[in-house]
Amino acid sequence: MGRRLYVGNLPYTTGEAELQELFSKAGTVESVRVMRDAATGRARGFAFVEMATDEEAQKAASELNQFQMGGRALTVNEARPKPEFSGGGGGGGFGGNRGGGGGRREPRW
User: Fold this and answer.
1) CA separation (Å) from 59 to 25, 26, 38, 90, 108?
2) Do 64 and 24 meet the contact criterion of CB atoms below 8 Å apart?
3) Domain range summary for the chain, segments of one domain joined by +
4) Which of 107 and 11 is assigned the larger pLDDT?
5) pTM (two decimals)
6) What is the tens place of the pLDDT at every residue in 20-72?
């Protein structure tokens, strides 16, 4: 298991300091990042916590998964890397689904 944990189902009022305090019971917390909406600054209900060692991350995940916080059962598990998009559907940076085109058009007879 890696040292980075995903923490989901957070009450929207939960801040970094509160998570730092909670996770420090399982070991040394290196960083806490509550994800927020870019436009409003409101918490999005999940965070990432990085522990100092893999063992501490494992301990935190086993002790704090389903932990009750603000009437909600937290989801704590190993954070997965962001998936890399490899072609195929979706927009991408080139405005997907606009059809082919380009090149010279031959007239139809």
Assistant:
1) 10, 6, 32, 38, 69
2) no
3) 4-77
4) 11
5) 0.74
6) 999 999 999 999 999 999 999 999 999 999 999 999 999 999 999 999 999 99
Q: What mean pLDDT is reported for the chain?
A: 86
Q: Looking only at Cα atoms, what is the longest distance across the chain?
A: 77
Task: Classify domain 4-77 by CATH architecture.
Answer: 2-Layer Sandwich (3.30)
Structure tokens at 33: 């990042």
Residue type, 84: E
Identify the sign of the CA torsion 67, 72, 48, 13: negative
C-alpha span between 95 and 92 (Å, rounded): 6
Map residue 23 onto helix, strand or coil: helix
97: Cα separation from own chain's centroid: 27
Here the tokens at position 25 are: 């019971």
User: Which H/E stretch holds residue 21?
Assistant: helix 16-23
- CA–CA distance, 83 with 81 (Å, rounded to integer): 6
